[in-house]
Design a protein that fits this description.
The complex is a heterodimer of chains A (about 500) and B (about 625).
Chain A (H helix, E strand, L loop, with lengths): L13 E2 L4 E7 L6 E5 L4 E9 L6 E8 L13 E4 L1 E3 L13 E3 L8 E13 L2 E10 H8 L5 E4 L1 H12 L6 E3 L6 E4 L5 H9 L13 E6 L2 E6 H5 L13 E4 L22 E6 L3 H7 L3 E8 L4 E8 H5 L40 E5 L8 H6 L13 H12 L2 E7 L9 E5 L19 E13 L2 E9 L28 H8 L1
Parallel strand pairs in A: 12-15, 16-22, 18-20
Antiparallel strand pairs in A: 1-7, 2-3, 2-6, 4-5, 4-23, 5-10, 6-9, 7-8, 9-10, 11-13, 14-15, 17-21, 18-19, 21-24, 22-23, 23-24
Chain B lengths: L12 E8 L9 E5 L17 E4 L23 E6 L8 E6 L47 H4 L13 H17 L3 H14 L4 H23 L6 E8 L6 H11 L3 H9 L2 E7 L2 E10 L5 H9 L2 E3 L13 E6 L2 H8 L8 H12 L6 H4 L4 E2 L3 H21 L3 E5 L5 E6 L8 H5 L24 E4 L2 E5 L14 E5 L5 E5 L6 E5 L5 E4 L5 E4 L117
Parallel strand pairs in B: 3-5, 6-11
Antiparallel strand pairs in B: 1-2, 1-4, 2-3, 4-5, 6-7, 7-8, 8-10, 9-10, 12-13, 14-15, 16-17, 17-18, 18-19, 19-20
Helix pairs in contact in B: 2-4, 4-11, 5-8
The chains are: A alpha+beta (about 500), B alpha+beta (about 625).
Chain lengths: ~500, ~625
């Protein structure tokens, strides 16, 4: 491993001079904890972040040929201190660095919690694989919260982050709507947040329900999906991609990509993880769902049907090559056509049938009776659940994975642009941009792999719309099978016919 | 995987403790602190932050529009079982039922999982619960109603007698007085006095108080009121007065031990006001020099009331602080329960008098109370009077002396009253209690048999029945008891099938296993009927009225349908007897006649004049002779 200060080629990186493993115990004749610089022992570093992961995590492989680590020794209770940047994004290169700073001087060390395996390939050499995570992960596993919270969910999350997890990291949040009250029944801090985020409604994007709490290199984030796509209040601009990746074999000028050129925006590898799974979308309630609610206080029940097309026009989406504030339902990945009896796929709500309590008044006070007002409680499930499920599962249904040159500038929750060509054809079609696969994507997961002097970033990306409209169809074309419904045979008859 | 479907995302149940039941919407919701799910630290999670739990009703209640029971049976401190309607989110608890146990500790109001209501803030809580939670009421005892368990209070020092049981005893004493039909001995005695003259009054009173008491208890004494009572005031050293148990209590109350205790004790005096059967009140005189602030504080806290308006001329008050024993329990503890008057009314009255700052005298208790100097003298006089009476009775040929098995005089009956066929005798009110049969038509032995006293085959009196106290009632006795002490009992105990419904005041009714129904009302009983009232009594009716009786017929005057009369019809072979002990019989009409029709003779006898005055004519028609006979003159003008 070597320090790179100048960009020479894609995949270069800047690793801190010191890569410390710090013990829980003091060093000899030193009041400071015992630290060992293992930089020269590093074989591989992996760092992960994702919108579905509460904290950063990673894996470190060390090759120790001089029994350096035996002096520590490793117990699974060490701190890991280092920094990692893509050249040009380090503090030395810019006033707005973008990378991982795990140093104790001006960053936040990681916690080694597991020594995965120790291999001895030869006499005197040991290969260690360590797993590490943010210290908040450890703290969250150590404690349970049991107290009442009243306020907006974003402030409750802030309180948990600061008071319970004692985190000193940045907290980047999208304000939530309303005042809520929860009594946490002995849940770990992250489980508390996980419980609340599913029901949270954005005050900026009122049609967006369901939040994500996750850690990136910049700190902890608490955002809705739409909050990741757009800026500010409802109707605000879409965010611009932080990186524009292309999988095309030629660049716009007609020149082929030079794989050795220092272009960190090229794509090494591209995979489609999920694309067309209409059966799952039906079952998970992406297209439609029915929610029955029961309010045990007022003894009322309701049936609420969710229609993806109606909801789609009110929400922000990602996937188009050119983002527009107008969400055309034809750009959703559910083609609008006459599926059955003149109805589109979104008119069959019983594919996902739910029954939830909408009981309010769990924290009534005499004042509520006097004012005829409603007490604070969880957000109304009637306005959150179906939209939240549909939106979340929509993003789960269209996912790609791209391997790109190491880039610490991209984080989970960012928007990137991705272009690829259609596969089929010759001639002119070879350069055609695939309008369905190409477009803006939400980065849902980021993995950094650093080994043998090369930094690769693996991005898992998702979107919920396409650039080119699916053509609507009013005719019931899929229902053309042979009609044998008038033929009813008993098994005896069938046996007779077959004999 | 979460299904987002109530009932299909796991059944998350809980155990918890009720901490609040003041549901602002009055639908019976409660705040429950759930074990494991909630912390017991009320600083972190105060009671008011707990969510409201709905409570389930059994299928015997409709749970709508007030039909069936209301879901308000739980109290702060109840342990409950329930589930979370919203599953793992655990924001919507629902309580399914309560869990009785065998508490081994009282509640700590400062901590979670206990009732936050202090005993001192709960008017229904027993006095010994102050800073402790209002529930549980006691420890080391089953949570079931003591009425159901018949728990042995003496076995468990932490228990006090169930309030309802204690009140019942008091009520029964009181009701017993009302119900005692032994006006006969008194009537007899009164008749005897009338017969023998007033010289025997002292004998009769003392004789009754001393001799009849073992038979009829204090009921008679009380029923006779202060007429026969006696009061005395004694002063003596405190040491010789209090019981050993009382000494320990005194030591505990004052907080003094050994020498300081003995010094305080030796220098304390007690002045007791005596009723014929025990102490009515006691005043404790504690030497001022020994009375520290702590001792004073402890005494006041434990039921002593310091008398501030002591007569300075009272030699007992010189150098002493005076305290009243202001409650029955404390007096019992100090002086011995067997030495306290059983007449709780009189005791309470004495307390009221003391509370007013007045001295207990015959006038303050009752204007008619007899006053003697001291208890010893009373007893001596009574013994002597009894002996004198015995001697006089032996010489009397007109009085029948009825004795009990122990030879005690229990009734004095004039000989002429023994003629049960005598019209006059029956006019005296009859002898005994008329009960035609001792068993029900179904053959069960009547409960009243146990409450009618008989001597020599003569029913002498009756008292109000009390429910049989049987021990092996579990698990057949079904009790519903409210917080304040109202209760309903449906007892299926074999041989003791009974229904009882009782107000905490003691007003109640119960139906015994033979079908006897007893109504006891400790205050007024009002009955309003907008229609007609029909009563059928197969056998007989006995009514004892302590005061007056007023019957107003056609009070509104609006009925004129021929059925608006006051009619008394007596069948063949029976008489109508009306007797006034001392007073007049007045028959008058405002607008109408007085008509007398006799199938036989009309006999009038008067010890004094007979006056017939008419503002108009007087007509005497005889079908046969008219005879006028005078001891002296016959005047015609």
């Amino acid at each position: 491993m070597s320090t790179v200060t100048n960009v020479t080629k894609a995949g270069d990186y800047v690793l801190s001079e010191r890569f410390l493993l710090t013990s829980y115990r003091q060093g000899i004749d030193d009041s400071e904890p015992l630290s060992i610089d293992v930089r020269q022992l590093i074989s591989e570093i992996q760092i992960y972040e994702g919108i579905n992961n509460f904290t950063l995590s990673g894996r470190l492989t060390l090759t120790d040929g001089a029994s350096v680590l035996d002096d520590l020794p490793l117990t699974g209770h060490e701190l890991l201190e280092f920094s990692l940047y893509t050249p040009g994004m380090s503090p030395e290169d810019t006033d707005s660095p973008s990378g991982y700073n795990f140093t104790s001087e001006n960053g936040h060390p990681m916690f080694v919690y597991k020594v995965l395996n120790i291999i001895s390939p030869n006499q005197g050499t040991k290969i260690y694989t360590l797993e590490f995570c943010s210290r908040e992960e450890i703290k969250s596993s150590q404690r349970k919260i049991c107290r009442a919270f009243t306020g907006s969910v974003d402030t409750i999350v802030s309180s948990i982050l600061r008071k319970d997890l004692k985190s000193k990291k940045n907290y980047i949040f999208e304000p939530t709507k309303g005042v809520n009250k929860y009594v946490m029944p002995k849940l770990s801090p992250f489980k508390c947040i996980n419980f609340m985020q599913k029901e949270s409604i954005s005050s900026n994007n009122v049609e967006s329900s369901g939040y994500y709490f996750f850690e990136t290199k910049n700190g902890f984030n608490f955002k809705s999906l739409e909050g990741m796509l757009s800026k500010g209040k409802r109707g605000g601009e879409y965010k611009k991609p932080v990186a524009k990746y292309t999988n095309t074999p030629v660049i716009e000028g007609g020149k082929m990509f030079d794989k050795n050129a220092p272009n960190i925006l090229k794509v090494y590898e591209f995979n489609i993880l999920d694309r067309f799974n209409s059966l799952r979308n039906i079952r998970e309630g992406v297209y439609a769902s029915r929610l029955v609610t029961y309010n045990a206080f007022t003894k009322q029940f309701k049936e609420l049907d969710f229609d993806y097309i109606d909801s789609y026009t009110k929400q922000k989406h990602t996937g188009q090559l050119k983002q527009s504030d107008i969400s055309n339902p034809a750009t959703s990945f559910m083609p609008i056509f006459n599926y059955e009896d003149g109805k589109p796929m979104s008119s069959f709500p019983e594919g996902k049938y739910m029954f939830e309590s909408s009981t309010q008044g769990m924290h009534d006070t005499p004042q509520n009776v006097t004012d005829n007002s409603q007490s604070f409680g969880p957000p109304d499930v009637e306005n959150t659940l179906q939209k939240s499920i549909s939106q979340k599962e929509a993003y789960n249904s269209f996912k790609i994975e791209i391997k790109v040159p190491g880039n610490t500038g991209v984080s989970a929750g960012d928007i990137i642009s991705f272009e690829t060509t259609t596969y089929a054809g010759h001639g002119a079609k070879e350069t055609q941009i695939d309008p369905f696969l190409s477009g803006n994507y939400l980065v849902t997961k980021v993995g950094h792999l650093i080994h043998t002097n090369k930094h690769i970033t693996i991005l898992t990306c998702a979107k919920d719309s396409v650039s080119k409209e699916y053509t609507p169809e009013g005719s019931e074309l899929l229902n053309r099978e042979k009609d044998e419904s008038t033929n009813n045979f008993s098994t005896d008859t069938v046996d007779l016919l077959l004999s | 995987m979460k299904n987002n479907f109530i009932g299909m995302d796991g059944f998350v149940w809980f155990l918890g403790v009720v901490e609040d039941r003041q549901d602002p919407y009055l639908i019976g919701r409660i705040r429950v602190r759930c074990f494991g799910h909630h912390t017991g630290d009320k600083v972190i999670l105060p009671t008011e932050d707990l969510p409201w739990s709905q409570v389930m009703l059994p299928v015997t209640s409709a749970g709508i529009s007030g039909v069936g029971q209301s879901p308000i049976g739980l109290v702060e401190g109840s342990h409950v079982f329930g589930f979370f309607r919203d599953g793992e989110a655990r924001q919507e608890p629902v309580v399914m039922g309560s869990l009785p146990g065998y508490p081994t500790e009282l509640g700590d109001t400062t901590k979670g999982f206990y009732s936050p209501i202090k005993g001192s803030d709960d008017p229904h809580a027993p006095d010994y619960l102050t800073n402790e939670s209002s529930h549980p009421r006691w420890k080391n005892s089953p949570d079931n109603s003591q009425l159901a368990t018949r728990d042995d209070y003496s076995f468990n020092p932490s228990l006090t007698e169930h309030a309802s049981i204690a009140v019942d005893k008091e009520v029964r004493e009181s009701v017993g007085i009302v119900g005692v039909a032994i006006t006969d001995p008194f009537t007899t005695a009164a008749a005897f006095i009338n017969k023998g003259g007033s010289s025997l009054f002292g004998f009769v009173t003392d004789m009754i108080t001393s001799t009849l008491t073992p038979l009829i208890g204090n009921q008679l004494l009380s029923s006779l009121g202060g007429t026969l009572g006696g009061l005395s005031i004694m002063q003596n050293g405190f040491v010789g007065t209090i019981t050993d148990f009382g000494k320990n209590a005194w030591q505990t109350i004052t907080g003094l031990a050994d020498d300081p205790f003995n010094a305080l004790l030796e220098t304390s005096l007690v002045k007791q006001t005596l009723a014929p059967d025990g102490f009515l009140s006691a005043e404790i005189f504690v030497k001022s020099a020994n009375l520290t602030a702590d001792v004073l504080d402890n005494m006041v806290k434990n039921g002593f009331q310091q008398v501030t308006n002591v007569d300075p001329s009272n030699p007992l008050a010189q150098g002493y602080e005076v305290f009243n024993v202001t409650n029955y329990a404390l007096a019992s503890q100090l002086l011995g329960a067997d030495r306290i008057t059983k007449n709780v009314d009189a005791f309470n009255l004495a307390n009221e008098v003391v509370a007013k700052g007045e001295a207990i005298t015959k006038d303050t208790l009752s204007s008619a109370q007899k006053f003697v100097n001291d208890a010893e003298t009373t007893l001596t006089n009574q013994a002597q009077a009894l002996q004198d009476a015995e001697n006089q009775l032996k010489q009397s040929s007109e009085v029948l002396v009825v004795r009990d098995a122990q030879g005690n005089v229990i009734e004095l009956v004039e000989e002429e009253f023994q003629d049960s066929q005598s019209q006059q005798g029956r006019a005296e009110g009859g002898k005994g209690i008329p009960v035609a049969s001792t068993s029900t038509p179904a053959g069960r032995t009547k409960l009243m048999n146990q409450f009618i006293s008989k001597q020599g085959g003569v029913s002498m009196g009756w008292s109000v029945p009390t429910p049989p106290e049987v021990s092996d009632v579990y698990p057949y006795r079904h009790v519903y008891e409210s917080e304040s002490g109202h209760y309903m009992i449906y007892d299926d105990t074999p041989g003791n099938e009974m229904i009882q419904q009782r107000h905490r005041s003691g007003t109640q009714y119960f139906i015994a296993n033979d079908g006897t129904k007893t109504d006891i009302t400790v205050s007024d009983e009002i009955k309003a009927v907008t229609g007609s009232s029909y009563n059928t009594i197969t056998e007989r009716q006995v009514i004892n009225i302590g005061d007056g009786l007023k019957v107003k017929v056609n009070a509104s005057g609006k009925y004129n349908d021929g059925q608006n009369h006051y009619e008394i019809l007596v069948g063949a072979g029976a008489n109508v007897n009306i007797q006034v002990e001392k007073g007049d019989i007045n028959l008058s009409t405002v607008d109408g006649n007085i008509n007398m029709n006799s199938g036989g003779k009309i006999n009038m006898t008067a010890k004094d004049d007979i006056n017939i005055i008419s503002e108009q004519d007087v007509t005497v028609n005889a079908g046969d002779d008219i005879t006028l006979k005078a001891g002296d003159k016959i005047r015609l003008n």
